[in-house]
UniProtKB/TrEMBL annotation:
GO terms for biological process: methylation. GO terms for molecular function: methyltransferase activity. The keyword Transmembrane helix does not apply. Pfam families: Ubie_methyltran. This is Methyltransferase, UbiE/COQ5 family. Keywords: Methyltransferase, Transferase. InterPro entries: Methyltransf_Superfamily (IPR050508), SAM-dependent_MTases_sf (IPR029063). PANTHER family: METHYLTRANSFERASE, METHYLTRANSFERASE DOMAIN-CONTAINING PROTEIN. Gene3D superfamilies: Vaccinia Virus protein VP39. It comes from Leptospira weilii serovar Ranarum str. ICFT.
Amino acid sequence: MSDAISKKKIKRFDKIENQRRFFDLFSRSYHLTGFLSCGLANRTRKRSLKILNLSEGGIVCDLMCGNGDNIGILKKYFRCEKIIGVDVSGGMIRRAQERFGKKDIVYFTENALASSVPSDSCDAVSCIFGFKTLRPEQRDILISEVYRILKPSGTFVFTELSEPAGFARFFWSLYFVYFLPQIGKLISYPFVGKEYLANSIRDFGAIFSDEPSFRSVFPKVNLFRWYGGIVTGAFGQKCSSDRSGNFS
C-alpha cells in the first residue's frame, strides 16, 4: 500500500472518528437545535418524510439518524412495520433508544457509508440534516449505499440546510451568522456557536451540486428547494424489475 493511499485512509478515518466524538459530546443537548430553529427543523422533517409516500407496513431506514427525531415522527405519524436507525455516534443512538425505545425499531451504531443494513431490504430511506457533514466523495458513497439497501421501487429523500441566494440570503445570514452564534455563547452551546453551523452550511452550499451523483445512480430523481432555498433536497426512486429481470 502506497504512502498516499495510507494517508488518505487515515484522513478518512480521522474525519469519521472526529464526527463520532463531536456528536457523542452533544448527544444529550442536540435537541436544542430543534428548539433554536423555531420549528423549522421539525416542519422540514415531517414534510420530507411525507413525500416518501410511505405505505402501511413498510420498512424505513433513517441514515445518520442522530438522536431519533425522524424515528419519533415515523413512529407517531406512519404505520411502519419496522424502522431502522443508523448513526456512527453511540451517544446519539443511546439517546434515540431512551426517547423511543426498541419496539419495532432496529438501531445500528455504524458508519452510514458502510452499514450492516441488508441489501434490497428497505421500502424507503431518509437522510435529513446529515448530508452536509460529508465530503463530496463520501456523499457519492452514501448515495450508492442508499441504492443498495432500497428494494426495487423503493423511495428515498435527502434534505439539507442550504445557503440561499437572493433576498432570502439576508434572513439566512441574520439567523445563522449573527443570531445563533450569540445564543450559543449565552447558553454555552458550541454546536451553533462560533458560526460552526453557518460555516458547515456554506461549505456544503446546496444539494443541487450533487445532482450528477444522484442521476448517475437513480433514474428517477427530483430536486427541490423549500423556504426560499434555506432547505434543499432530493427525492427519488429505485428502478423496479419485471419478471424477466429487466429494470424500468
